[in-house]
Amino acid sequence: MPNCFSFSAACPFAKFTLVRFGRFVCFRYTGKVVKDVINMGSYNYLGFAENTGICADAAADVTTKYGVGVASTRQEMGNLDRHEDLEKLVAKFLGVESAMAFGMGFATNSMNIPALAGKGCLILSDELNHASLVLGARLSGSTIRVFKHNNMQSLEKLLRDAIVHGQPRTHRPWKKILILVEGIYSMEGSIVRLPEVIALKKKYKAYLYLDEAHSIGALGPSGRGVVDYFGLDPKDVDIMMGTFTKSFGAAGGYIGGRKELIDYFRSHSHSAVYATSMSPPVVEQIITSMKCIMGEDGTTIGRDRVQQLAENTTYFRRKLQEMGFIIYGNSDSPVVPMMLYMPAKIGAFGREMLKRNIGVVVVGFPATPIIESRARFCVSAAHTKEMLDTALNVISEVGDLLQLKYSRHGLIPLLDRPFETTYEENED
Predict the structure, then answer these.
(1) CB-based contacts of 171: which residues, under 8 Å, 6+ apart?
(2) Cys bridge to 238: 35, 207, 410, 422, which one at CB 3.0-4.6 A?
């Protein structure tokens, strides 16, 4: 616990400074800092969370023009032209009819799912869905059933049973069946099997809610998320949700879909009716970074960063496997969970890494099963190859120290094809 509250990070850059506080009960500033820490835990996937560059300049200009806050809701006095510009741009980016922006990512899920479903509706939720999705489902008053993670057989069984048996006791048909999934699961690094989910959704006439908090901007040839990654039609996803807090380096979230759906949200969503409008500089940060990704700024900055993130992800994952660590997730996911397993190694790994100037996130129960503790690395386009090599060398050193190289699979890299590998079983 003291490790969680004894430091404050100065910024989410690829390298940052940690400020050390006293024991977590008093938060006393000690005057001690740890400089040049390589940041392997931030969600700054494309490196747009920075204090210099076109995004920072645009946000500063808008602050001068509009101020920092709006001090009102969108339905009262807080609707600015930049809010509407943002929503049009998001809809264009996603390839949907309309979109709506919200000031908080967590509330985008927890406050909008209750507007979609209620009593007499059935929600089918992946067992590893984020807490915001779980809370939104519970607040809706709907019946909730959970299917095994990314398991299409489990999902189809629940869908089939729902159609055959209907509601409990009365056996009336469900008013609505809503499937909740994420693009990239933040503790597993796994990518949703979206083509199969869409096929099941169509087969059983259900609705699909896709949370792209971690995948938007970080996946796909053009950075448009998991739909772009699989080459699917955005119209096949009924509700497209995502956040601006990660790849765009800002705050808030969005929902995209058909115009009728978004118009309904504008009058029925608690986040829309009661929440204060997004801060103008935050809006401008999103608009500028999104235009970079789309190439509408007249440069290739966004495209280059999307490509750099993909290359960094492949390289980092491959090196960890070569070292003998067990890592979870899809090979294209920038979220890289490395298994520690034993709870006693959680704090030890975090402290030993920080001693060597590498900042990491370590995760244990209740966020994961008690014997599946892990370190979660987040790769960024802002990481240089030198930074990744430095981090990898330290991870290997600490891995030897704490005996974390559990893998029994030896990996033999093919030198003529650097991104393809073969495996063979080692003898103990």
Answers:
(1) 165
(2) 207
Q: Which two tokens stand for residue 325?
A: 């660590």
DSSP string, 179-209: EEEESB-TTT-PBP-HHHHHHHHHHTT-EEE
Separation CA 128–CA 132 (nearest Å): 11
Work out the burial of residue 17: count CB atoms within 10 Å of its CB; fewer than 13 is exposed, 13-18 middle, 19 or more buried. Answer: middle
**Residue 419 exposed, middle or buried by CB count within 10 Å (0-12, 13-18, 19+):** exposed
**How far apart, in whole angstroms, are the C-alpha atoms of residue 362 and residue 306?**
26
d(CA 19, CA 21): 7
**Smallest Cα–Cα separation from 405: which of 322, 333, 331, 297?**
322
- Are 286 and 253 contacting, i.e. CB atoms less than 8 angstroms apart? no
Mean per-residue pLDDT for 228-234? 96
What pLDDT, on the 0 to 100 scale, is given for residue 423?
Answer: 35
Residue 412 reports pLDDT greater than 60: no
pLDDT tens-place string over residues 326-343: 999 999 999 999 999 999
pLDDT digits (tens, 9 = 90+) for 73-83: 888 888 899 99
Indicate the residue type of 159.
Answer: L
User: What are the distances in angstroms from CA 423 to CA 189, 225, 411?
Assistant: 21, 30, 5
Confidence of residue 35 (pLDDT cuts 50, 70, 90): confident
